Structure formats: C-alpha cells, structure tokens
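User: structure tokens for Enoyl-CoA hydratase, please.
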Amino acid sequence: MEFITVTKEGNAAILKIERPPANALSRQVMQELASVFEDLEHDSEIRAILLHGEGRFFSAGADIKEFTAVESGEAFTSLAQNGQEVLEKIENFSKPVIAAIHGAALGGGLELAMACHIRLVSENAKLGLPELQLGLIPGFAGTQRLPRYVGTAKAAEMLFTSTPLTGDEAVKWGLANHAYPEEQLLEKAKEMVHLIAQKSPLSLKAAIELLYHGGRFEEGLKLEAKRFGELFDSNDGKEGISAFIEKREPKFIGE
Ligand SMILES: C/C=C/C(=O)SCCNC(=O)CCNC(=O)[C@H](O)C(C)(C)COP(=O)(O)OP(=O)(O)OC[C@H]1O[C@@H](n2cnc3c(N)ncnc32)[C@H](O)[C@@H]1OP(=O)(O)O
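Assistant: Done. Predicted tokens:
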C-alpha cells in the first residue's frame, strides 16, 4: 500500500490518504482504497472506519495530471465506471464509514466523501464539484449523489457555477453532519467512530442495508421487519436487552 495508511485503534480503523500535495485520486489510489475495504470487510475486530487526508486537503479529486495520459473517451468512461464501482463498495460496506474533511473535498474527493455514510467537516473546508470548470462533468456518481443530499436546485447551482460550499454551508445544506474548527476535526471524528464501534456489528450492518436499500417503501418495511426479527434472535440482541434491564453497558460480540 503506497498511498493509504491503515491504523487500528480498538475496534475502529483510521484510513489516511497520503498522496501529497492534493491527495489526488489516481487509479492506484482508487485500487488501494478498494483493496483496503476488501481487507476490512473480513477483519472481525474492525466495526467502524474513519477516512481522512494527510496534508492540506482531504482530496482535490481525480488526478487531473493523469487525465492527459488517457487515450480515448472510451478509456475515460472506463475510468469513471471503475471509480463508481469503488465508491459503491464503500456506500454498501457493511460497517459505517465516516469521512473527516479538512481543506478541500473537490470533484472525486467530494464524490468519495459522499459515498461515506457520515461526513464531518472543518468549518472552512471547500466542498464542491468543479468539473464543469474543466469542460467535463463529475464521473464518480457526483451527479447522482449530490442532489440526494442538497436537492436538485442546489446541486445544479454547484455544478453550473463550480462554486464550492464551505464546511459550515455544507452542514446547513445537509451535505455534512457537523462542522468543527479544523484543529478539532480529527479528535471529534475519532470520538464518533469509537462511539459507533461500540454497537453490534450485526445491527450496524442491517441499518446500512436498510438506509441504502433504494427499493420501494413497502419493500423496505418488509426487509426491516425481517432484520428486526433476526436481530432479536441474535446473541447481540439478547445482550442489548439484558444489559438495559440489568442497568449495565452491553458487550456486543457480533453474533
Ligand atoms: C471523476 C472525477 C473527476 C475529477 O475529480 S476532476 C478534478 C476535480 N477537482 C478539481 O478541479 C480541483 C483542482 N484543484 C484546485 O482547484 C486547487 O488545486 C485547490 C483548490 C485544491 C488548491 O488550490 P491551491 O491552494 O491554490 O493549491 P494549488 O497550487 O492549486 O495545488 C497544489 C498542488 O496540487 C496539485 N493539484 C490540485 N488538485 C489536483 C488534482 N485534482 N489533480 C492533480 N493535481 C492536483 C496542483 O497542481 C499543485 O501541484 P504543483 O504544486 O505541482 O503545481
């Protein structure tokens, strides 16, 4: 792994993108991300993930310098499809993923952050999809995920003008969960990832599946009731209920 470092802290994995100066998402960075998430899927000690960037930015997007070596529109399409697949893996990951965004999350950087389940930002961060400035459009599902968070009108404005939101504005528009002064961001993000990692991996997995299932309301209800019953039958479900009755903290084992 050249550009992603993984540090395990208790039941949380802290991933850092380390590709100065802008943590641009080259093909290799995207491959490394896919491979790290593949490993973490099978790591039963890890129950929640925090993703952040080294240096000045979370990530300034796909590697624009690498674009000059792409030979055809077809190859560009395949670059987008590959990125979309990696980000879908992250969104459908069975463990919660938090992005801690400082400096800038632009283009592919914001698309990566939008595939995470929770976004925490520094107040002065810049979050935007400036691809129209390059004569392009977003290619890692930005046109599809951004309106989900901010609505179509605001997403249109962000795309058409290439003007980023600040971290504070991103919270107001529902794109980010909380904004903090930059020097507090990582500490706050770690507090949240450790809080989440105390939950049962089974109920975390089911919650993600239901939040992102994307089907009809009635289908969602059926699946919710099914998972509710399965969790009731699990050791963790029994442990959680006993712990409440016995006025103690639950100890979840993921079974
Ligand atoms: C499917 C996905 C598509 C995409 O994601 S397309 C890319 C979308 N992203 C962008 O358009 C953002 C481009 N970058 C910027 O707007 C600016 O940069 C920043 C706001 C991030 C920072 O501005 P400042 O503080 O003035 O620094 P600086 O001198 O522009 O950048 C520092 C170094 O970082 C390199 N860099 C920045 N973004 C990228 C990038 N996306 N791909 C490759 N390199 C990048 C620059 O070139 C430079 O490098 P050097 O010091 O060698 O000149």
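User: Anything notable?

Assistant: The chain has two domains: 4-196, 201-245.
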